[in-house]
Amino acid sequence: MVHASLSGTGAAPETVRDALLDALGPGGTLVVPAFTPENSDTSRAHRQLTEGLDEREVLAFRATMPPYDPDTTPCPTMGALAECVRTTPGAVRSAHPQTSLAGLGPRAPELLDGHHPHCHLGERSPLARLYEADARILLLRVGFEVCSALHLAEYRTTPPPPRRTYRCVVDKQGNWVECEDAALDDSDFEAVGERLPSHLLMRREWSGRPVTQFRMRPVVDDAVRQMSRRT
């Protein structure tokens, strides 16, 4: 799974996508986050979009929010590479209306199928299947603060994380659904990454910013240990 920032590199997302697919080979599968936090009235993204609006304007904005469609809903906050992968012919996308993943390759249907609508990034999400597959994570010019694999660790902490209510619009405009799930908190992800054993990480640099590659399973396991102590 790849998180990437291509800003300032001069590289086209299609070029980076093709280079990653070439590196993976015909048997490899490229997965990216295709999150849509805008499709919610309980997210930071929604609060930013409605900042400065009065109550009537917020209600009007909410009433016109389009429903999530895995085939057409863009993922603008995930970066150019993620949107490029999502829109590539043959790409597969998971069904969650807020935290979908998109993929290209022979295992994409298997890895991204069955994303339960009441589980953002836990045991009933593609992250759990990527963990079982011992996937590799590539942070391409970004840091651990955006490493979504660490959310799986949140679900596995002892004690378990608190829960909260989420709302999003699905199927048709105005059809709001509500669910309860773990209260996801990425505020300490950067610190968790800094405390990871160095032997788990392969570090390089590209266009003036760090590149980090690692196996998902041992990093998630170490993050579980760290996060279980944070309370």
TrEMBL record:
Query: What are the TM regions of this chain, as residue ranges?
Result: none
The entry's keywords: Acyltransferase, Transferase
The record's annotation in InterPro entries points to: Amioglycoside_AcTrfase (IPR003679), Antibiotic_NAT-like (IPR028345)
**Record bears the keyword Transferase:** yes
Annotated GO biological process? response to antibiotic
Asked whether the UniProt record includes Nucleotide-binding among its keywords, one would answer: no
One of the entry's Gene Ontology molecular-function terms is: N-acetyltransferase activity
Q: Which family does it belong to?
A: Belongs to the antibiotic N-acetyltransferase family.
Q: What is this protein called?
A: AAC(3) family N-acetyltransferase
Tell me the organism. Answer: Streptomyces sp. R02
Organism classification: Bacteria, Bacillati, Actinomycetota, Actinomycetes, Kitasatosporales
